[in-house]
Task: structure prediction
Amino acid sequence: MSLLNRPARAQARSSKDDLVPLLVIARLTVPKLGVAYMFTLLLSVFNRVMINELQIAAAAIGGLYFAYRIMNVFQVMTGRYTDRRLLFGLRRTPMMVFGLMLAALSLVPLPFFALSYSQGNTFAFVLMLLSLMGFGFGFAANGDAHNTLIAELTEGKRNRPAVVATVWLFMIVFTVISGIASSIILQIADTQAGAPPGCTTAECAAIRSQVAIDMMPKFFLAAPLVSLIGLLPILGLERRLTAEALASAEQRPPLRLGQAYAHIIANPQARVFFFFIVIAIFALFIQDSILEPFGADVFKLAPRQTAQFQPIMGMGTIVAMLVMGIVASKWPIPKRQIADWGLMIAAIGFASLFLAAALDLLPALYIGIALLGVGMGVFNVGALSMMMDMTVPGEAGTLMGAWGMAQALANGVAQFAGGVMRDVGIQLTGSHVAAYNFIFLVAIVASFVAMNLMARVNVEQFRQLTREQMVVTMEAA
Result:
């Protein structure tokens, strides 16, 4: 009887070995706590305060966000560095800790710089720029190291799509929690200051604006602590390299950043995938810097109400990633098709925002925000899994850095372009509705362009470049 059961037991063990353990998945998710908290502060609460309460031009805010995103050009450098240089036998963990703590500490003085700039101190803009550049570099270094660690721990595992979905799912969960918490804190502070939720007078609006300004330093001061808590579970997760692997890694050649980019883009499949990421992320995130101001300008919503936009979008993303992660793990749906579905849903969401503004339909605003969240969730499962597939062992950090850099730069360009289009559109047309609706149309067109590029991506052709060939190509740089 035991002989008959032995093959079944061996198959069960083999099946289990093909999966990333649940505890490992849980530990991989927690570092997103600090990421989500800072993301919510910048793009939900603080973004609204700078544009609507401090009256800083949206184009200037978009420029600041682009400055922190442009620091992601160093993702390839930090990725190659962690491929080749180690600390205590580890490659990814030290860079994650360094990057996230640098990002959090860089944001602490940002509210003071913004307030000073709004009061006429032009040099404060330079300080804001430096603050966000420090944040951007740390954010990029942490993100590349974290994604590469996930790629390495899920290499050859059947549940890679589920792991990717879970990590990003919990980042959105943390984002939702951060958004809800900030909204509740602002509402409590509003009430204590004399502006309860039901009050719609100009005096109450002024009180709410001042409360939002006053709360910013306290929100950002908590960022280093939240980030540190999120980093603790990751310690001890990464496998230490053997002595032989350690010696081999440390003998790798020095970095030559420009040539490394040139060799990556020289690969036709890498080039198409790179530009797919750029255009798709541009389409999805052009609303990042203008969605909360859109609610204020067109629908006259209060800060605590626009602070709910990210939680609504986040809930849509959570549901989409949860469902799609399970489906993609059980059925062999092509990852490109999943990414296309996400872009299509997001395009419908932008169309809903367009109709909301054109017809003054507040319900359509919330439907559009929720659909954007669903589209992003579906897109994340497909696109992030493809990013990890589009790597070669030994150069995972470098290639994940390239894809992450494309994603972050596109995000920065989108935020800058959204702010510029808002300001220029209002100046040219005198209409908030026309300005915002032009942005939504651009997003829809870009979504379809990205889907066209995705049809030309072939992971198998990319992987025909063997590990040895990729190492020779990179080391020639």
